[in-house]
Amino acid sequence: xxxxxxxxxxxxxxxxxxxxxxxxxxxxxxxxxxxxxxxxxxxxxxxxxxxxxxxxxxxxxxxxxxxxxxxxxxxxxxxxxxxxxxxxxxxxxxxxxxxxxxxxxxxxxxxxxxxxxxxxxxxxxxxxxxxxxxxxxxxxxxxxxxxxxxxxxxxxxxxxxxxxxxxxxxxxxxxxxxxxxxxxxxxxxxxxxxxxxxxxxxxxxxxxxxxxxxxxxxxxxxxxxxxxxxxxxxxxxxxxxxxxxxxxxxxxxxxxxxxxxxxxxxxxxxxxxxxxxxxxxxxxxxxxxxxxxxxxxxxxxxxxxxxxxxxxxxxxxxxxxxxxxxxxxxxxxxxxxxxxxxxxxxxxxxxxxxxxxxxxxxxxxxxxxxxxxxxxxxxxxxxxxxxxxxxx
Length: 392
Ligand code: NAD
What we know:
Elements: H1 2-7, H2 11-18, H3 21-29, H4 34-57, E1 61-66, H5 70-80, E2 86-92, H6 96-106, E3 113-114, E4 130-133, H7 140-149, E5 153-156, H8 164-176, E6 181-183, H9 191-201, E7 208-216, H10 229-232, H11 236-252, E8 258-264, E9 277-283, E10 289-295, E11 302-308, E12 311-316, E13 326-328, H12 342-356, H13 364-383, E14 387-388
Parallel strand pairs: 1-2, 1-4, 2-3, 4-5, 5-6, 7-10
Antiparallel strand pairs: 7-11, 8-9, 8-14, 9-10, 11-12, 12-13
The chain binds nicotinamide-adenine-dinucleotide (NAD).
């Protein structure tokens, strides 16, 4: 599976883990984890020291951050400073004061600062290889297409767009430009998640029969764009439910075929435009059922549990920027890894894929598949019945 192929290409993570004393301890005492670690070791070995040296000396790709909101400010810019193959090269913002602040902090020249109107001039900036779209969801399509037309690779935040149709246009635009489109699904590279994918795939707990997954939080500011349908596309489901959808899809390696969903709104004023709390059941081709919930109304749901014929395992907490905690019903199976910087890992893997001329995953098709699931969930709520999930 593409997630696994990419996951096992985690050279950056391996190197980071190797520097950590806990990694050595983990690698010798956990029998069940050996195949995963062997996979990582094999990848590093396959690369060989000369390949590593070549990568180390290779140029860093220049990234332009589009949208300097909380994710860019608090996570992405600091993460870029930790990467090996990436660097902050340019910024795109509609707020001149923010531009000045960032220029001062990161030493960005005027020639590398754009606003939403003059953004297309980025075509003339050879320092920018990758445009990272970190805007409200409704703006992902426009800036992905404009970046592709400017001849840049594109990395786009989740959810990829507001609709599957938008995703299809984005995929086509980047493909036509001969560039790569990566989607910011950071959990796909996070070691606890990667290990859970291995446990599922290698049937360490037997054939998986049932998954339960949930992610939600209490949304604050009623004026934020996340509660405006035109900007966010939807509510909790689009924003955080998507992590639980991802978990069900990458644990099974299957696409859901049928969905029945229900929504409740306990605050119809605050959540007038978008979904507040959704629960749904997804049926997969193998017969596995997954139960998923998401909410903007309360804290406390941030987990997945996978049940196989031979036991259970899961993560709680699962989807935050750190703090992943694994557990299992078999005392010998520990899901325990040092923390990584999810954003540094995914950005560097994208840069490396480009430098190596290899396809990056998760790509646009992965974002599209999630939007097809999301659209089926909304359709089921509207129609009050089970619906089929459209295929790519
Ligand atoms: P934010 O509100 O903090 O920032 C949004 C940015 O877009 C701001 O700089 C704002 O000025 C700009 N903007 C431009 N036009 C706007 C408009 N019409 N309305 C509102 N803002 C506008 O949001 P954020 O948390 O940085 O989220 C940005 C994107 O990143 C979203 O797609 C979100 O889903 C995604 N995200 C992903 C993660 C993750 O873990 N991968 C975490 C947070 C956010």
